[in-house]
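Q: How would the C-alpha cells look for this protein?
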Amino acid sequence: MKNIPELPCAVVEDLLPAYVEGLTSEETRAAVEAHLASCPACAAKRAAMGAEEGPSPEESEETAREVDYLKKVRRRSRRRVMLAVLVTLLVLMAGFAAKVFVIGDPLDPAGVMVTSFRQEDDSVQVSLSSTASGNAFRGWTVDNRDGVVSITARSVLVSPLFRDGTSTVKVPLEGVTEIWLGEAGEGRMIWQDGTEISADAWALYQAQTPYVGDAVAVGKVLAAVDAWYGPYIEYTISLQTDQEPYGLTIHFDDITAHMRRDSTIQVTDRRMYALAPTLLALIGNLGRVQWTCALSDGTYHTQAITLTEVDEVLPDWIEARNLAHNLINPDGKPDWAVPESIKDFAASPAAVQRLMDLTHDGFHQVTVEDGTYAFYPWPQTPPL
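A: Here is the predicted structure in C-alpha cell form.
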C-alpha cells in the first residue's frame, strides 16, 4: 500500500475547503482523511464546515462529468457566438457593398461637370461627366415640372455593374425655362431661357450680397470672382460705408512691390477694370471700386471706377459685343438688350453668365466694310 504522507494541521486547514468541495486529488484526499482520523481539532473544524466526509469517488466522478459537460456547452456557445458575429459582419459588408456599388447616393451637382450642350431642333443634348474617376452613375431621369427640368441620377462607385461616369441626357425644350442638375431649387442650374449656365456663373450668382458693409459676404463674392477669373493674386480689402458712394478698396501692396512699375500698373489695372463691373453688379449697394498697389520706387498707384462710369459706357459696350458677335459668329440669335444698369446683370443666373461673357470679351476689334471698328470699355488699358 502506498505510504500516506503526514500533513501538519496548518496545511490541512488550508486544504479543508477544497476537500469538502471534492476538488482535491485522490492522494491529497487520503492524506487529509488520515490526518482527520488522528487530530480531533482538525476533525472538529471539518465537522463545522458541513458534511461529515468528503465526496465519494462516485460523487467526484459525477462532478467531473458535469464539469466536462459544462465545458462542452461553453465551447459550443463560443462557436455559436463566433458564427453569429461572422454572419453579422458578412451581412453588414454585403449591405455596405450594396449601398456604395448598387444603391448609391443622390447625384451631387458639385461632383458633375457639364461637358457640352448640343441643341437639336426642339431638344438639347446635355453631356455630363463625373469629376472623380472612381464614380459612376445609374438611373438617369429627366423630370419636367411646369417648365423647370430636373436631371437626377444615383451616384455609385465604379464596378462591373456600373462602369461609366459619363452620360448624355436628352431634354425636350418645349415650354422649358430652366434646366437643373439635381433637384430644382436644391441642385445647380445649368440652363436658363436659352443660356447655358457655367458652374462659375452659378457660383457668382449664389455669392452675391446686397450690402458692401458685410465684410464676410464681400469676401465670398471676391473668392467666387477669383475662382472664375484667375489667376489668384493675394490682396487685402477695406470698406468705405460712411457715405455714398459706398466703396470697396483692394490693396495689392505685398504682391506688387517687387515688380517693375509699368508691369505693376498694367497688370493690376487690366485685372481690375475687367472685374470692377462684376463687383459692382454682385454687391448690391456698392457704388465705387478702388484698387491700390505699391510700386518698386516706393510710391503707390491708385485707380478707381464708379457705378456711374460703368453705366455710362454700358450701351457702347453692349453694342460692340453685338456687332462682334454678329460678324464672327452669326447664329441668328437676337442682339443683347442694354440694361438700365450693370446691377441688372445680377438678376438671374443667365444674366450673370452674360456679364461673364461680356467681361471675357472686354475688348472688341472687328473688321467692317469701312475699316476696323475697335472698342475699349476702359481706354486707359489697351490689350497686353
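The chain has a mean pLDDT of 82.

Residues 149 and 179 are 5 Å apart (CA to CA).

Upvote if useful.
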